[in-house]
Amino acid sequence: MRKLCLALLTTTLFFTACQKVNQQQELTGEAIVTVKAIDALCGSVIFEIQEDSLKKYGEQNFTYKGKKYNGVFSSQLLCSEFANTNLYPNNDGNFEPSSFKVLISKNPPTYNCENATCLAILTNMPETFYFIHPIR
């Protein structure tokens, strides 16, 4: 019985690990990607990577408000970063600009924050998180 339980546990862990590898590739260093905002609240944003070849760095089959997305990640726009994107919802609920380039990284940038920052977050955020820096 112990051998059977151990075999089932090992098999389950193996398949779980394989699924994770197939779904997402870990970002090492930094990458420049084109993103589109799916939703935002204060500085908390869900982004979708637009390049098919780079979607591997985000979560796959992420469901948000009844729609599935591939290549999504969450981020927190701090200080002046939010102003640099000109990211705001229009009357349709979509965000403008519709897409823009950012540098994504697991390493936090250094911010010189003088203003208070809203840290409210959306209720259904992707687990994958990147720090971003908008590229002009």
TrEMBL record:
Annotated PROSITE patterns: PROKAR_LIPOPROTEIN
Protein origin, superkingdom: Bacteria
Name the UniProt record assigns to this protein: Lipoprotein
